[in-house]
Design goal:
alpha+beta; 25% strand
């Protein structure tokens, strides 16, 4: 059973710093150049804690995890960061434009009781081990969740959603910031007992679906298990919970984008091979491939370095009998399980969001081909998660990304 509770968060003092200077994008989309830019923005930018530079290049006392802990302690001592005096929930809004429309992603940051996956909290994607090791090292050093896991719940009652809407409409946010994509991120603090009780009651006991942050949840689960083995406190310690941003599936404002796949080699007779399971059409290279795929559910796009145009691959006899039923109809699963594994024998994949960047890299010979996908539907995510199966890595890209630095969840 899930449990959603408020907590005494650590937040920036809005009288001393500006959100534009101290918030940062998620660590996993920060490249070296952006990392340096964030360092220059402010000596208190959260990147120093969440994704800092490793000065020594070793696992010694001067590594970035120990430095992250030092920064956290130092900023608290200086009052740049402060811990709230009482438990609170944190309303989070991200306002953005997509396809000519203004949208608002809204949700609540709180702490969720950690359970084994599939027992109330459900994943939908496979994960890699390296990011989990990094996040565990950071969690151990800081004894805190530095960034929230992005998750979804389904409440037709919309009690928490109405509190969010009323708060956003009637009060000024505590802090806000503009990100690299033109998204405005806003934060409100909710600490009155009536709202806290209503929010917790509405969301607790409902299934939670991890949208973005599978590595962080699995890391929190591992950390909890380690701490339980050495702690006398069982079942209700701070490490038994993890910080989450929860958005209602029934609310508007949630956008899922596709992540395309670039590959370095394709057999010369790929058309003949793919024709075993697909109906193949060749489309003019000036076509808007994203729009075309949206109009053709289940179809996969391909651009090859023969530069003839876009190949449209429509499954006609997909051999996926050994794939769980909940996954069979998803184009990302058809691509990985059928095209990559069974037909073309491809195991080296590069992921890229930008369609036109993908095309240019293929034209310049940096990759042999790119495969284009349509966005995964949120209903498919719920179905996959509830059936205890997982899509391939990077099957979904939730937009906008939550900024890091809005709230930290300490364990001490």
């Amino acid at each position: 059973m899930t449990e959603f509770l408020p907590f005494r968060g650590i937040i920036y003092d809005n009288t001393k710093v500006n959100g534009n200077d101290v918030f940062a994008p998620p660590y996993d989309i920060i490249g070296p150049q952006r990392q340096e830019e964030l360092y220059r923005k402010s000596e208190y930018n959260i990147v120093r804690i969440d994704f800092g530079r490793d000065a020594s290049g070793t696992d010694g006392p001067d590594n970035r995890y120990s430095k992250a802990s030092d920064y956290l302690s130092e900023w608290l001592a200086r009052g740049v960061l402060r811990r709230l005096d009482k438990d609170a929930f944190y309303i989070y809004e991200a306002a953005y434009r997509y396809l000519g429309e203004t949208l608002k992603l809204r949700g609540i940051i709180g702490r969720v009781r950690i359970v084994e996956l599939g027992q109330g909290v459900y994943p939908h994607e496979e994960t890699h081990s390296k990011p989990k090791k990094d996040r565990l090292s950071l969690m151990k050093a800081c004894k805190a969740n530095v960034s929230p896991i992005f998750s979804l719940y389904n409440s037709p009652d919309r009690i928490a959603s109405k509190i969010i809407e009323d708060t956003a409409a009637s009060s000024k946010p505590y802090m806000e910031a503009l990100d690299d994509w033109g998204v405005i991120h806003r934060l409100w603090i909710i600490d009155d007992d009536t709202s806290i009780k209503a929010i917790s009651s509405d969301i607790s006991r409902r299934p939670i679906f991890i949208a973005d942050g599978h590595h962080r949840y699995e890391t929190a689960l591992e950390y909890r298990n380690e701490m339980r083995s050495i702690s006398d406190v069982k079942g209700n310690a701070p490490f038994d919970y993890v910080m989450m941003f929860l958005a209602n599936i029934s609310d508007p404002g949630l956008t899922i984008l596709p992540t395309h796949r670039l590959v370095d080699s394709v057999p010369g007779n790929f058309v003949d091979i793919l024709s075993q399971c697909f109906e193949i059409s060749l489309i003019d290279k000036n076509t808007d491939i994203n729009k075309l795929l949206l109009q053709s559910p289940g179809t996969i796009g391909m651009f090859h370095n023969d530069l003839k145009g876009f190949y449209l691959l429509k499954p006609v006899s997909p051999d996926l009998e050994d794939t769980p039923p909940a996954l069979r109809g998803l184009d990302v699963v058809v691509l990985h399980e059928l095209i990559f594994k069974k037909l073309l024998n491809i195991d080296i994949i590069t992921y890229e969001m930008d369609t036109w960047r993908c095309i240019e890299m293929v034209k310049k010979g940096k990759h042999a081909a790119v495969f284009f996908l349509s966005p995964t539907e949120v209903g498919d995510i719920e179905k996959v998660a509830m059936n205890s199966v997982r899509m391939p890595p990077k099957s979904t890209y939730f937009f906008p990304k939550l900024m890091t630095g809005t709230v930290l969840n300490p364990f001490v």
